[in-house]
Amino acid sequence: MKQYLKNTWLGIWTVLVGMRITFKHLFKPAVTIQYPEVKLTLPERERNRLYVNIDDCIGCDQCARACPVSCINVETTKSIPGEDLGTTSNGKKKALWVTNFTIDFAKCCYCQLCVFPCPTECIYMTDVFEFSEYKRSNLLYKFSVFTEEEAVQKKLNFEKFQAEKEAQKAAAAAAPKPAAAEPKTEEKKSE
Asked: pTM value?
């Protein structure tokens, strides 16, 4: 009988403790937000999706080298003389065509290590955090403005320029050199 009363009191006590917590929150305003329509304000230094301002990218590849999971792929091609690549927003002259700049967000660990070494600050974290996809291939973001055909054309133009330059060097090396005039020696007059 003693054990029965003890168990009954213990059951009532646990219900009262639970009801105390329930009554405590019963009269407080709700904190539920309607997520798709209402979004929480994020902290100032959140780390979300990366964005690349390709107009400011000089193709230095420092972001790809800093990435610990190798999710950034940068391919560049040198420009030929006479092509104007423009300048970045901070006035730095571009020397390389950025033919391919892709980030695989399926691999990205959002560590922000790629942001800091960028000399032109063209890669940065945005406040966009909703970009789930049904297919993994859709998480491969391409930032380059060139199509694949245009990128191949830029590479072929540079290779053609290099071949012409090598041909000019070979022609210059094969051309006979004019005989150099022998230096005149002054004869010392002996007195």
From this structure: 0.68
